[in-house]
């Protein structure tokens, strides 16, 4: 099958500054100092809206993937992959065809295998749902040909894909006629399994799969103002074939302004499949950009949401998104650095963290206060790296003038951008990891049937975690220098074992 392997590896730069011209070579792997806060991974690109998810983290293989479209005249889709320690990067142009149209709003899908999904545009009209599968495995640069999931023009502008508990892929399409449709395919994107319409006349809120279940959230399109509409709807599935009836999620929300509107919304699921909805509440009477607004998280239906921006006072905050994993949660959003309007507004990216699955939250922390460029249009990987207690994110800066990326895309005519990828520790959570380079982890037998023997040289009994192919913890405990783990209760399949950060893949046969 045809695949594209155009390598576009960019010299890695600290976020504090950008030279006049980015240096581009065509190697596929470049190591760099992991102390850097964020690295430049692409140029001449777009990253507009956070409704799709341009970055994803796979706890299964400890790897991240980002996806962005190229310059609007060309419509390529670029994918960048790195291990969780950012020790090297592989950068590919995976889509560069005009047969299916220009690629738009690419979405990363990260699990045992990697995928990318996106809408395409022909003659200024959106329509197709397209996806690609990395047939050679992570970091291989071997991508299958693009697949028309529809097939044909379905009037979609967003295509968000995620991996179901059975390994199949569920794609959600958001249409221009305000419908939400779905397409379920097998793990190799070879066979279609199911398709249908989830809702009509609605605003898409968010989509996630975690804890063995998928949730799709949306709200009434005709009452988009939060003053009149505090009821959100959702449907769930475990297999992408059978869906629950429509359920109600009540925000129980008191609007902060006489004329309040939700502008940007997202959601994520905890590891035990509990939804966490993030949204901003904008003062719709404020006609001067940046608009006054606050950011909230709704953690329980019928319970008033938590305001994440209360410590900032009455300020302009906007564009939130959220991640969950390992009992932790992180939300990121924009807060203005200055009091200038329009293109001269200067956003910083702030984050709040939670150590109790998104119930209580820290005060905001500034991720980008050292940046000498205006940043924005950020995305966050919905899964957290629970081994390092990190979260991953990407954002844009403009290429030429130092102006506000969000304003340029929202109100202007677009621009050329740099894409930066960063990782940050979850403040207040510390896990001491002290592994010497010569320490060796031995797991046997592999493949295994009923028991695993773990051999690891350590002065203290180290922690051990066993993950299934969804990244869920199926066993945790401590081991001595040599220990037997009973795995007879687990079904056959591929698993990953971690001992203080050292990771091995194992196969269970029954």
Write the layout of secondary structure elements.
Blueprint: E1 6-7, E2 9-10, E3 24-25, E4 38-43, E5 45-46, E6 55-58, E7 63-70, E8 77-83, E9 90-95, E10 102-110, E11 114-122, E12 125-133, E13 147-148, E14 156-163, E15 169-175, E16 179-185, E17 192-200, E18 202-210, E19 213-220, E20 231-237, E21 247-250, E22 260-269, E23 275-283, E24 293-298, E25 306-307, E26 318-325, E27 328-336, E28 347-354, E29 365-366, E30 376-380, E31 390-398, H1 405-411, E32 417-425, E33 441-444, E34 451-456, E35 463-467, E36 473-478, E37 482-486, E38 493-499, E39 502-508
Tag the structure with descriptive keywords.
single chain; 510 residues; mainly beta; Methylamine Dehydrogenase, Chain H; Immunoglobulin-like; six-stranded antiparallel sheet; four-stranded antiparallel sheet; 1 helix; 1% helix; globular; disordered N terminus
The share of residues in helices is under 10%
Overall number of structural domains: 2
* CATH class (first level) name of the largest domain: Mainly Beta
Q: Under CATH, the topology of the largest domain is which?
A: Methylamine Dehydrogenase, Chain H
Apparent shape: globular
Characterize the main sheet.
6 strands, antiparallel
Give the helix/strand class: mainly beta
Q: Mean pLDDT, rounded to whole units?
A: 84
Which runs of at least 5 residues are low in confidence (pLDDT < 50)? 1-36, 224-228, 429-438
Q: Cα distance, first to last residue? A: 34 Å
In the CATH hierarchy, the architecture of the largest domain is 7 Propeller
With helices defined by DSSP (H or I, 4 residues minimum), what is the helix count?
1
